[in-house]
Amino acid sequence: MFNALLSSYPPQVSEANLKHLKELSIDWALSHGVVIRPPADLALANNSSVIHAPLALFPSPFPKKAFEKGLLLQPLFNLLFHRLTKDNEYIKEIMNENNCRNRLSKGDDFIEKLYNIYLTVNKEGISQPISLSISRSDYLLHLPSGANEPKILQVEYNTIASSFSSLSTLATDMHRYLLKSTNYFDSSSIIKNESLPQNEAMDSLVKGIAKAHELYGSQNAVVVIIIQPNERNAFDQRWIEYKLLENYNVQMIRKTLTEIGQEGRLDPETKALHIDDKEISVAYFRSAYGPADYLTEKDWDIRLLIERSRSIKCPTVAYQLVGSKKIQQMLTNPGVLERYISNESDVQNLRSCFAGHYPLDASSEGEVAANLALKHPEDYVMKPQREGGGNNIYSTDIPKFISGLSLSERSTYILMDIIQSPLIHNFLLRQGELIEGDMISELGIYGVFIGTSNSDFENESIVNETAGHLLRTKPKETNEGGVASGFAVIDSPLLI
Ligand code: ADP
Ligand code: MG
Ligand code: MG
């Protein structure tokens, strides 16, 4: 059924109706806060203008079975990554010590700085045993030529600043509106209301933050969302702030790292973090995931200050480290999953969504992988330890790139098999214009986990939930997939 749709989607609509759909979508998005700040050259004074977020005009077909598998896997991934954060020996092995082949923290300044914060705070003793994880596991459909049934393969697992939960929830509502308000959106009866799954992402994330705030246990405390200066995706974040206030009566303040540097302090006795004399219950990061987020060394001091504090971190530095692409590569090695997940069928389920990953270090596997990448670059993507899109090296760019790296630099990358996604025709709406073409969709499943630092596997989980989804769609010509980085648009799945 899914395969049959690949050549007949989206439903045929006339030019006039397409124009009408475009207008309806733009106005619905502007009316319902599916918006971002405009690029600098279109902005009005005092941040007083917005544009609609980039959107898919039609929901993109996605196999129901594969979608449900993603939902099913999420509590397992939540648990797996929490257990990884508590495995100090493994983190040390991968980041630096014991194994001189890896030495990730030595070839990569950014990882080294995070790792140093991790070591410092572990040595001093952590002052907050509870952590909040808002993660997103991203998948592409894999349908190599000749295969009958597409399956999901994990692209990556995000443990910091997993964004677009609010706008994604609203994208489903927009597709429902288009269906209801026109009688041609589904001229061929493929798009049905019941095939557009409920998306709880916005509410689930807010509920997770509210629960962490409650566990912190101080009535007058507030949540801080740590943002990038000049954030264009501010409204995805504002929705969280408004819902937290309306539904839970919890305030969320917005601060950059630099602002916290000016206004924040730690109580030397209790380690409570205060910003502007407000005590901080939860420090929720939507920044600090890449080198560019640390404008000066002082910003690194602030990250350390927050990590030392009694606030509940979302995420902790340990979570950020285990979200690295290197750990995702290591997880595909035989026997690693089994250390954290005891049930055999759970292990098999997790493993079934892993694509081939290879080290690029000085080990014999690393040498073999580097040679393969030089010979058959079109089969691989090369990834550094970075987040936020725009960092990977693809296909025929790989050989020249690898040849320019020293061995210690090469070791900070991993190699991954290219996932072969089916193409689906759609129209993307960006800055008021439609772009028609063959598209690739990437499914994200959100997870909320509140855990403790208990060293055993008992009493470690307070909340473990699957927390809604995101579908991002990009033209097939584009390698990267980020929305904020300008490659993809927000979509919603049409379950087939
Ligand atoms: P980031 O953390 O920067 O988002 P990702 O691993 O998600 O890094 O890679 C960015 C994009 O590159 C993805 O959204 C996807 O579109 C594409 N991509 C990554 N890995 C693969 C892969 N193995 N096969 C095909 N495309 C991939
Ligand atoms: Mg990422
Ligand atoms: Mg990604």
Automatic annotation (TrEMBL):
Pathway the protein contributes to: Sulfur metabolism; glutathione biosynthesis; glutathione from L-cysteine and L-glutamate: step 2/2
EC number: 6.3.2.3
Entry keyword ATP-binding: yes
Domain Glutathione synthase substrate-binding: residue ranges: 221-322
UniProtKB keywords: ATP-binding, Glutathione biosynthesis, Ligase, Magnesium, Metal-binding, Nucleotide-binding
Gene Ontology molecular functions: ATP binding; glutathione binding; glutathione synthase activity; magnesium ion binding
GO cellular component: cytosol
Binding locations of Mg(2+): 156, 158, 387
Top EC class, one word: ligase
Keyword Metal-binding: yes
Required co-factors: Mg(2+)
Binding site for ATP: 156, 325, 383-392, 394, 416-419, 442, 474, 480
Source species, domain of life: Eukaryota
Note on cofactor: Binds 1 Mg(2+) ion per subunit.
Catalytic activity from the UniProt record: gamma-L-glutamyl-L-cysteine + glycine + ATP = glutathione + ADP + phosphate + H(+)
Binding, substrate: 136, 160-163, 231-233, 237, 286-289, 472, 483-484
Family listed: Belongs to the eukaryotic GSH synthase family.
Subunit structure: Homodimer.
The protein, known as: Glutathione synthetase
Organism from which the protein derives: Ambispora gerdemannii
